[in-house]
Specification:
The protein is mainly α. The protein has helices spanning 11-24, 26-50, 65-71, 77-114, 120-128, 131-166, 168-193, 196-201, 209-215, 220-249, 253-286, 288-296. It starts with 10 loop residues before the first helix and ends in a 6-residue tail after the last helix.
Length: 302
């Protein structure tokens, strides 16, 4: 068993371990997501090209180069329709393929944890063996998350409008306080349920919500903070690269391909981080390190 997986880790150690694994096994982990998401992003690019978007550099009207670049992101209705269709199609298909890619990464990390050899094909095959439970549990979790977000939005909107009618300043302050409160509350609640996926992948329980609730006991704030950090890292990388290449390429198909490649990279990091957090919870809750030692111990023959 990998020594770094055999002991509980703190906040910084989980981040360090995540980036260490992502760097050492980048080729295999990136290839897993590329196999699933690559064809979808290629289809999106074809749709955008067919709708009239330039491949290398898309520019709009304007006297200066930066005005031309900026106006390229506000093209004609037909072009936007084609791009929107491509994005919608990618989102729809991703719902059905992303869980398999994430599960394959988790199986790969599990093999790393145990010091076992693996291939990209073998972990993908393992992931497909749990496809039905994974998809059903993911849809259930998505529905729960959607409902948890919709209700607060309605409450915040009503409170803000009523407060603004009575006193504008009070309405704004009330809306901000409610937003922060709901954000933290919902975030913590979803964190308690978020490790349902690992439980389903490794056949512990389906849909895995109660199992996740037990695993995350006493670690909710740390895990919530890790999710925020990973989200900020992903957002920063995506935003910086999109702005950098966007200044040169405009709203072109090539820019979309670059952004999608970056999305594969950041999703890979997030998935590895999720797997590291899941196995850390297992170590803390189930004492998997002791089970591994017992399993590897052989009593000598007399």
């Amino acid at each position: 068993m990998d020594e770094r997986f055999s002991r509980p880790k703190g906040f910084g150690q989980i981040l360090d371990h995540t980036f260490s694994l992502s760097k050492r096994h980048f080729k295999d982990l990136f290839l897993i997501f590329l196999i699933f998401m690559g064809p979808i992003y290629l289809l999106q690019a074809i749709i955008e090209l067919a709708s009239g978007v330039s491949f290398f550099r898309e520019v709009g009207v304007g006297e200066t180069w930066y005005e031309q670049i900026l106006t390229s992101f506000d093209d004609t209705e037909d072009v936007n329709l084609g791009a929107d269709l491509g994005i919608a199609l990618v989102g729809l298909i991703s719902i059905f393929v992303a869980p398999v890619a994430t599960a394959a990464v988790m199986f790969a990390v599990d093999h790393m944890r145990k010091g076992e050899e693996y291939t990209v094909g073998s972990v993908i095959k393992q992931a497909f063996s749990r496809y039905g439970p994974m998809l059903g549990s993911t849809i259930l979790f998505g529905v729960i998350a959607f409902c948890l977000f919709v209700v607060p939005v309605i409450i915040i909107t009503i409170a803000g409008v009523v407060g603004a009618i009575v006193l504008p300043v009070v309405g704004i302050i009330l809306a901000i306080l409610l937003f922060v409160g709901f954000f933290i509350g919902i975030g913590l609640l979803l964190t308690r349920w978020s490790f349902y996926f690992g439980s389903v992948v490794f056949e512990e329980e389906t849909p895995g919500l109660s199992r996740s609730w037990k695993l995350t006991k006493g670690r909710t704030w740390v895990l919530f903070g890790l999710f925020i950090i990973f989200s900020l890292i992903v957002t920063m990388i995506s935003t910086i690269l999109e702005m950098t290449f966007g200044l040169v390429l405009g709203n072109s198909v090539l820019l979309s391909l670059i952004i999608n490649a970056v999305s594969i990279f950041t999703t890979m990091i997030f998935s590895v981080g999720y797997a590291v957090m899941y196995f850390d919870l297992k170590i803390r809750h189930d004492a998997d390190d002791l089970k591994e030692m017992i399993g590897e111990y052989h009593t000598p023959q007399i």
